[in-house]
Amino acid sequence: MKNGPRSEAERNLAIQREARDRARAGFSTRVELLRGQLAPEKLATRVIDDLTYKSRGIVGQAIEIASDNRGIAVGALAALAVWVGRRPVGRGIAALAHRITSRKPKGPAT
Questions:
Q1: Between helices 8-37 and 40-68, what is the axis angle to 10°?
Q2: Alpha-helical runs (H) found in the chain
Q3: Residue 73 in contact with residue 66, Cβ under 8 Å?
Q4: What is the rounded distance in angstroms from the CA atom of residue 90 to the CA atom of residue 58?
Q5: What is the pLDDT, as a whole number, of residue 42?
Q6: What is the separation of C-alpha 66 from the centre of its chain, rounded to a whole number of angstroms?
C-alpha cells in the first residue's frame, strides 16, 4: 500500500468497510436482543402475561353475556350441575327404587 494520498478506490473501499461494520454491529445487537427474548424464562413470562390478559377479556365478556341472558346462564349451569352429579343421582334413584320394590306388603289392619 502506498504511504501517499489514497486513491479513489481505496477511499470507497474504506467507506464501504465502515458501512459494513456498522451494519454488522446493528445486526449483532438485534440478534442478541432476540436471543434474550427467546430465553425459556422470558418466554414463560410472556406466555403467562398473554394468557392472563386474554383470560381477563374472556371472563369480562362471559360476565357481560351472562348478565344479558340470565335465564340461559342459569339453565346452562343447572345442566352442568346435573351432568356432573349424574352418577350419584342415578345411584340414589336406583337405591330408592330398590327400597320401594323390596318393601313387604302390609297386611290388613285389625
A1: 60
A2: 8-37, 40-68, 70-84, 86-101
A3: yes
A4: 35
A5: 83
A6: 22
Rounded to an integer, what distance in angstroms lies between the CA atom of residue 30 and that of residue 77?
Answer: 51
Q: Is the pLDDT of residue 53 over 70?
A: yes
CA dihedral (85, 91, 97, 100) positive or negative:
negative
* pLDDT of the residue at 108: 64
In the structure, what pLDDT confidence band is assigned to residue 26 with cuts at 50, 70 and 90?
A: very high
Cell digits of residue 16: 464501504
Compute the distance between CA of residue 108 and CA of residue 103 in angstroms, rounded to an integer: 15
Question: Chain-centre distance of CA 95, in angstroms?
Answer: 44
Identity of the residue numbered 53? Y
